[in-house]
Design a protein that fits this description.
The protein is α+β, with helices and mostly antiparallel strands and about 200 residues long. Helix content is about 15%, strand content about 30%.
Length: about 200
Amino acid sequence: MFIDPDLSKVDTSIFYQNFDDIKNDYLNFKNNPFFIDYSHTYDLTSLDGEFFGFIPTYTPDFPWKVCPLIFNRQTISRTPVQIQECKTVELLLNQPIKPVLAVFSILEPGVELDPHSDGDERIDKTYWHSSVIKYHFSLDIPDDGPSALIVNGEERILKNKDLNLFDEKLSEHYAYNKSANRRGVLIASYIREEVLNA
């Protein structure tokens, strides 16, 4: 199920008030080689030290790509300086509660992901028993066909400036993009115990 943003200890107004800056970061990065092919055939949460123990690939027609911004509440030293110093990273890391992971996510046209769970709670080993609340912020949603986020069977058609929260461990989720254009969002993962008022 989706979670009411009013229950969040993270001040969700930071997303809405900074929409233009966050979207500009996304737009500046999306046509650069900052995005990598993302697949659940490898686990981005299980690596110690650096975010990557390998060099991920970029394939123009790969259906799902991410641009890593934050890992374990820190900038990622192996990413380009433009990412480490961007407004979005600065904004998220200047908050009292910091995400364990943040990425820009692209879903290519005509793609439907399989239902999945990411396991981002494993990033901070203190919280291996916990779960993660995903903050899914819509930045660049096409208007020529529906794009949606589905959580435990509940479907939400996305539009720009939507902020959708859900428990990543307790809620199987997936997304689709039935438009002819890319769909772009910011996804920030927070430890449940740190961000929920209930």
